Amino acid sequence: MAVKLGKGVLRMHNKNEFMEQLRQRGYKLTKQRQAILGVLMDLEKPLATAQHIFEKVVEINPGINFSTVYRNLDVLEQEGIVRKIAFDQGAAYYELIDGKHHHHLICKSCGKVQCVEYCPLRDMPMKEGFVPTDHSFEVFGFCKECMQAKLMDDERRKGKE
Amino acid sequence: MAVKLGKGVLRMHNKNEFMEQLRQRGYKLTKQRQAILGVLMDLEKPLATAQHIFEKVVEINPGINFSTVYRNLDVLEQEGIVRKIAFDQGAAYYELIDGKHHHHLICKSCGKVQCVEYCPLRDMPMKEGFVPTDHSFEVFGFCKECMQAKLMDDERRKGKE
DNA sequence: TTGTGTGCAAAGACTTTGCAGGCCG
DNA sequence: CGGCCTGCAAAGTCTTTGCACACAA
Known about the structure:
The structure is a homodimer. By secondary structure, chain A is α+β, with helices and mostly antiparallel strands. Chain A has two domains: 1-99, Arc Repressor Mutant, subunit A (Orthogonal Bundle); 101-161, Dna Ligase, domain 1. Chain A is built from five helices and eight strands. Chain A has helices spanning 15-24, 31-42, 50-60, 66-78, 144-160; strands spanning 3-4, 10-11, 48-49, 82-85, 93-96, 103-107, 113-116, 131-142. In chain A, strands 3-5-4 form a three-stranded antiparallel beta sheet. Chain A has a three-stranded mixed beta sheet with strand order 7-6-8. In chain A, strands 1-2 form a two-stranded antiparallel ribbon. In chain A, α2 packs across α3 and α3 crosses α4. The N and C termini of chain A lie far apart (61 Å). The interface between A and B is medium-sized, with 35 and 35 residues. β8 of chain A pairs antiparallel with β8 of chain B, so a sheet runs across the interface. Chain A binds a DNA duplex through residues 26-33, 49-51, 63-68, 70-72, 74, 89-92.
């Protein structure tokens, strides 16, 4: 069932499977919903804001409203199809729950997001009696490229002193 | 320098140390700033929203404005005195960076927050070249008490069927 | 046909900002 | 006394909601 895409990306589901899941749970298969799902599955980056998703969906389905996007992202989150991530106070990010569970390395300089399969819940000694259901884990810093640029910049600045 | 409080809590700094740190960095020691710092050090729970902090500060310093609280929480964050945490899309939480580095277990039922000293950055295999500077790690679930209540509730419901 | 879903507009929650005057150092 | 800080009010950003109509089943 898993589909092999370019660059070794594994896609566990296709759009029809998700639509079927929604249908079975009593949701209607509107064209807006299909467009949103389509966009989520085609995202080139792992994370996208509602704004970003909206802009893409508009191309497929002109006239769609922002609140429709929000409402459906909510539905997809309830159904376990999408994960919502909030860092800083800006807009929330969304990503399809598809393939392996993972977390993110986010570059504070260029914004690049890398996925890592390591999950801290594996190693963490759980406090007695606490039953975890969800967790957030995101690492911010500088990616290889930006770190190198930064070092060169520091070097240059040092020379000027 | 560390001060031992009740229940084994270790406080690494006192208010004067923080004020001194601010002074040295060129900040003025206004009564608003002192009140905010005082409130942060006296919080009974590990995390507090700006709203919560504001309400406490008003008791000490009536007439203080909400934007002053926000502006100073920003300053304290810049200075590494306070950490800002955002989960869900609601208000951000703040906590004093004092004592050991830690993360949180948050009960989705009663809202209780427990601190855990485990930090995932210790065990995580870092992607080559990435230099981490910050990270978020919060675990949501049910605390012992709420889990038990939940189980009893499920049991009761089962009986009614 | 029925009621879930949508578009529209408005409100809501949280946070930030511009400006005139106040207070710390 | 100078400039950082504050209070106030307004605006900004992101998200949610109420309502009438539309469309999937």
